[in-house]
């Protein structure tokens, strides 16, 4: 299902407010207003032990903005496929990208019906650029790649940045994420980029693990990964942009002010380039 410019009410899937959803819980961590009692209850179970969970969510969101700025301003990429978009908030990908290059094009994809219901806020493209929203599941990458809006808005002969920011931890190993990554990366033109981030239990063995257990108990798939597991899943065979896989707070931070501790952040991120055939063969 895809949406461009308008959202026909009849196509919005049913929103079940009795069950928690990751997009609404993330909105709760970020201080947004689009969440229900079930989302808050599950979120609070994690926050009880990962007290800096909100700080971590903000650091992740800031990483996303810095990565988009890097891609447009330094790598010259102006096309984005943002899977696991989340509810519209500040600094949505098209806003950051189009502030630098107004002709930037962005396709957003998420599997939460509430994100679809709010998608209009993601369709505020500059006149020179374009945005679209598709209701889709990362675990079915072919459905994303073959979606008509994806093919219409993005030019697959030019580099595209695939954004998998704070979504891979919702794809545990039983969903074969390595295969999902291979399908997506193989479909991207050479010179494209991947931006990814992932929650870890490496620096705080209690907080993030309690959060992940709360998600699973609520029927939401969730898996923590350490930096090696994340790097191998997301960036195998790709050229990591310096500084490589780091805590999101350490990825090209702005300014030199104090930053949260590794345990507070507990969230890795990285940006990598998909090599061209010539690069790959030296
Ligand atoms: C933590 S939010 C991240 C939002 C945004 N990418 C960011 O980092 O600020 C995770 C988003 O991924 C979405 N999501 C979770 N599993 C998904 C899946 N299998 N397919 C598509 N989206 C998914 C959730 O609905 C939620 O909106």
Main attributes?
alpha/beta, nine-stranded mixed β-sheet, globular, binds S-adenosylmethionine
Descriptive notes:
This protein is an alpha/beta fold and 282 residues long. It is built from twelve helices and nine strands. It has helices spanning 22-29, 37-47, 53-73, 93-100, 113-117, 141-145, 148-153, 177-187, 207-217, 227-235, 262-265, 277-280; strands at 2-3, 79-83, 105-110, 130-135, 161-165, 193-199, 239-240, 246-247, 267-273. Strands 1, 2, 3, 4, 5, 6, 7, 8 and 9 form a nine-stranded mixed sheet that branches. Helix 5 (113-117) links the parallel strand 3 (105-110) and strand 4 (130-135). Helix 1 (22-29) crosses helix 2, helix 2 (37-47) runs antiparallel to helix 9 (207-217) and helix 3 (53-73) runs parallel beside helix 4. The chain starts with a strand and ends with a helix. The model is unreliable at 5-10 (pLDDT under 50). The chain binds S-adenosylmethionine (SAM). S-adenosylmethionine is lined by residues 22-23, 26, 60-61, 64, 83-86, 110-112, 115, 137-139, 165-167, 170.
- Tell me the helix content: 25-40%
User: What is the H/E string?
Assistant: EHHHEHEHEHHEHEHHEEHEH
Using the alpha-carbon principal axes, give the shape: globular
Class from helix and strand fractions? alpha/beta
Low-confidence stretches: 5-10
Can you summarize the main beta sheet?
A: 9 strands, mixed
Q: What fraction of residues sit in β-strands? A: 5-15%
Number of strands: 9
Distance between the termini: 41 Å
Radius of gyration, whole Å: 18 Å
Helical element count?
Answer: 12
Mean pLDDT: 92
Give the names of the bound compounds: S-adenosylmethionine
